[in-house]
Amino acid sequence: MNRNFLKSKIRNICSNVKRYEFYDSSVIYKDEKEKKHVIKQNDNNILEIYNYLNSRGFGYLPRLEYCDNDIYVYEYTSDTNTPDEQRMSDLIKMDALLHNKTVYYKDTSLDEVKEIYENLILKIDSTYNYYDDIITMIESRVYMSPSEYMLARNCSSIFSCLNFCRKELDEWFEIMKNKSKKRMVLLHNNLQPNHLIRSEENVLISWNKSVRDLPIYDFISVYKKYYSDYDFNELYKEYLKRFPLTEEERKLMFIILFIPPRLLLSKSEIKATMEVAKLCNYLVTTDKLFMENEAKNTEKQNDKVYE
Fold first, then answer.
1. Beta carbons of 39 and 6 less than 8 angstroms apart
2. Residue 40, Cβ density class (10 Å: 0-12 exposed, 13-18 middle, ≥19 buried)
3. If 0-12 CB within 10 Å is exposed, 13-18 middle and 19+ buried, where does residue 249 land?
């Protein structure tokens, strides 16, 4: 964010600025009437997004006051103190409503399906090789550090997840190769609890990263950020009540979720142990989400991803 640029734009709009508050991607300023406004760089054609969402009956947007090719300004809305769990629940419900209001079908091709399949196979294989190399190195040591021992004890779970991903991806491809359409929505693409402003009417802010894509990606991104902070089993059910996912969408979502993130290896043994524990927690939490919501037949229930 270019602060000086935004300040100059503010002065063009409001000649008598009382105060500036600087944040990562925005500036809040107060005018001569003590009224607050938010200014952000317009890097995603915000006016077009506003017009589209209003045309689709999704009006949970901050009131737009000014917009040009460089910046946009909207009315500042005071937030209400809300329990974190309730705010996240409202955020997921709002996202499901967004997808309901903007869903449409788009042509897809076998080449497009193959591209997704091949990219995920590459990611699965590279992740498998990454952890296989680490485990081989660990097993060659005479003495393991605490983080290495923890990783070695849980390596079977990592490889089970990756094998599961491969199997599910093959099933997903068999479904999709005969499909000619896919569901598309407008993704907010930057969901965070503090982006939902609770006032007289809930308002969802920070639309500068929104894109049109498959509906699963909003849930994937918010899950990966906050999986250890909230009960995503209930949040997932709340989402599905309002926007049920198709079989192929659910499969693809869990394939992406089950690919383990790569460890951020650290020279500090304490930090390294914490990172391994974080990885193990991610695998357990994701398996629980899958088993409680998607493993509906006996075969999948008996063949757990994580033991």
1. yes
2. buried
3. middle
Gap between the Cα atoms of 43 and 155, Å rounded? 43
Instruction: Pick the closest to residue 45 from 77, 16, 70, 78 (CA basis).
Output: 70
Indicate whether 251 pLDDT > 50: yes
- Among candidates 305, 263, 282, 258, which has minimal Cα distance to 148? 263
Q: What would the DSSP string read from start to end of 203-269? A: EE---TT-EEE-THHHHHHHHHHHTTTS-HHHHHHHHHHHSPPPHHHHHHHHHHHHSPPPP---SSH
Q: What is the pLDDT of residues 154-213, one digit of tens each?
A: 999 999 999 999 999 999 999 999 999 999 999 999 999 999 998 878 899 999 999 999
Q: Taking a C-beta distance cutoff of 8 angstroms, is the pair 146, 270 a contact? A: no
Residue 124 makes CB contacts below 8 A (sequence gap 6+) with 162, 165, 166, 169, 259
- For 99, residues 6+ apart whose C-beta sits below 8 A from its C-beta are 185, 186, 215, 218, 243
Place of tokens 């304490």: 270
Q: Is residue 218 scored above 90 in pLDDT?
A: yes
d(CA 118, CA 264): 25
Q: What is the pTM of this model?
A: 0.91
Model pLDDT for residues 183-199, shown as the tens digit of each residue:
999 999 999 999 999 88
Q: Which domains does the chain have, with CATH numbers?
A: 3-76 (3.30.200.20), 88-302 (3.90.1200.10)
CB 29 within 8 A of CB 14: yes
Cα–Cα nearest to 32, from 23, 19, 45, 22: 19
- The answer to whether the CB of 275 falls within 8 A of the CB of 147 is yes
Rounded CA-CA distance 20/279 in Å is 40
Q: Which residue in 215, 219, 193 sits closest to 99, CA to CA? A: 215
* Coil, helix or strand at residue 37: strand
